[in-house]
Amino acid sequence: MNDPAAAPLKAHFLLDPEIVFLNHGSFGACPREVFEDLQHWQREMERNPVEFLGRRSGELLAQARQALAHHLGAQAADLVFVPNATTGVNVVARSLNLRPGDEILATDHEYGACDATWQRVCEEAGAVYRKVEIPLPLDNARFAQRLLAEVTRRTRLIFASHITSTTALIFPLAALCAHARALGVLTLIDGAHAPGHIEVQLDALGADFYTGNCHKWLCAPKGSAFLHARQEHHQMLHATVTSWGYVAGTQGHSGFDAYTGRTVLERRLQWQGTRDIAAWLAVPAALAFQQRHGWPEVRQRCHDLAIGLMQRTAERFSLPVIGSPEDFGQMVPLPVRHQDAAALRARLFDQHCIEVPVTQHAGRTFVRVSVQGYNSVADLAALEAALDPALEAAL
Ligand SMILES: Cc1ncc(COP(=O)(O)O)c(C=O)c1O
């Protein structure tokens, strides 16, 4: 970790060495040993699928959930595994039983697939999905106020990202969650990018619902994510696929809570028919990998590199940045000339072998760079060379 130019963790990942991979944010890379743990669980399943899925899965999943809950400052009973954050958002949206005239408030920085979910669910119910502008640059002091000022007596829920997709901003959520609760409005936080990237303490944050990915910044295998719900909301949450988790006393499963006389959240939501649960079981291996490699220092090094790159690019292009260093983690939006985003992304990949997304928000274009433990100073230098302002002007 002493040489800032080196990428000390590169050898632990399976990434193609020919590619400068600066897009951990879209589909994060998984370290070799975590991937091997995934395969270990798959082999274990194939030794006796009936025993593994029918009799062992409940206990194995409980252990994995416990490890994740501990990492996230949460109670395991409030947490269920889902395949991805999109599913987490869908579960909450469909469980709300929206009525005509109800309203969902969201920021104008939300992820497209989640916007689509809310639009569809609201349309079906005759409800309204309303976006509230969060202007750039981000003003942390006014963030909660902007959303709360739009609350009406029809507002059922506020939806906001913990870290946004197109603009990579960390939204300040604690005050929003607390004030929304005081107004009787639910909160759902989209933490797709947050676990393993910034400190996430779910009980302390106090959102009503929080969904997050393990397969992005925690470096767990694809298909590992979670949904967290405060205890008072467990009974209202329903799986998008109804299965054995809804049947009391199912053989081999402790899905029935004798105390409440109801099926518990974990069984209702996690068991959705036969499927591969290995990615969920490999989450503890991902947590152990990050712990062993001193992740707080890795994150800090990546943050410093990312911020330096953003500031240099803004200066070279004479464009303003959209937040201060504390508003970002390891992912930053480099401001570039407003242009065809797809064409710039394709040029960077086709001509320079750089995998990096180009995003747009409010009439501006950004190269959204993710810096992960496997990235080197040379990776960032390659992008800087490819983003030459003189070259850009000539295009
Ligand atoms: C902010 C945000 N929310 C949700 C998602 C969806 O994540 P997934 O595809 O794992 O469901 C993403 C994916 O990049 C995202 O950036």
Within CATH, the superfamily of the largest domain carries the name Type I PLP-dependent aspartate aminotransferase-like (Major domain)
Number of strands: 14
H/E element sequence: EHHEHEHEHEHEHEEEEHHHHEHEEEHH
Distance between the termini: 39 Å
Query: Rough shape?
Result: globular
Q: Which secondary-structure class do the elements indicate? A: alpha/beta
The low-confidence runs, each spanning 5 or more residues with pLDDT under 50, are 256-261
Beta percentage is: 15-25%
Structure write-up:
- It is a single chain.
- 40% of the residues lie in helices and 16% in strands.
- It is an alpha/beta fold.
- The protein has two domains: 10-22 and 294-387, Aspartate Aminotransferase, domain 1 (Alpha-Beta Complex); 34-289, Aspartate Aminotransferase, domain 2.
- The protein is globular and about 70 Å long.
- It binds pyridoxal-5'-phosphate.
Features:
395 residues, single chain, 2 domains, 7-stranded mixed sheet, alpha/beta, globular, Aspartate Aminotransferase, domain 1, binds pyridoxal-5'-phosphate, Aspartate Aminotransferase, domain 2, 14 helices
Question: What topology does this entry show?
Answer:
Blueprint: E1 20-21, H1 32-47, H2 49-71, E2 79-82, H3 85-95, E3 103-107, H4 112-125, E4 128-132, H5 140-148, E5 155-161, H6 174-182, E6 186-191, H7 202-205, E7 209-213, E8 225-229, E9 256-257, E10 262-263, H8 265-270, H9 278-281, H10 283-292, H11 295-317, E11 331-336, H12 341-352, E12 354-355, E13 358-361, E14 364-370, H13 377-386, H14 389-394
Parallel strand pairs: 1-12, 3-4, 3-5, 5-6, 6-7
Antiparallel strand pairs: 2-8, 7-8, 9-10, 11-14, 13-14
Bound molecules: pyridoxal-5'-phosphate.
